[in-house]
Structure to design on (81 residues):
């Protein structure tokens, strides 16, 4: 199966981010630096971020329901005292 140009770019980006995450986790295990696991998780999670808005556009998942009541204009939820 031959991947298209866009798919190749996505696969390359995921591979690059995971390639960065592995040494960061390794550095954390050796140095116990508190910033290393955060950086590694950030690098590993980078490919997931673009999928989040896409999932929101597809539609709500199970357990997410639209409001059934009309908005209360007399007491809006974002009112500041």
């Amino acid at each position: 199966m031959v991947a298209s140009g866009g798919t190749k770019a996505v696969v390359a980006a995921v591979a690059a981010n995971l390639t960065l995450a592995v040494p960061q986790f390794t550095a954390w295990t050796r140095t116990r630096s508190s910033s290393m696991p955060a950086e590694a998780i950030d690098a590993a999670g980078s490919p997931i971020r673009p999928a989040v808005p896409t999932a929101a556009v597809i539609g709500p998942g199970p357990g997410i329901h639209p409001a059934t009541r009309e908005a209360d204009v007399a007491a809006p939820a974002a009112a500041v005292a």
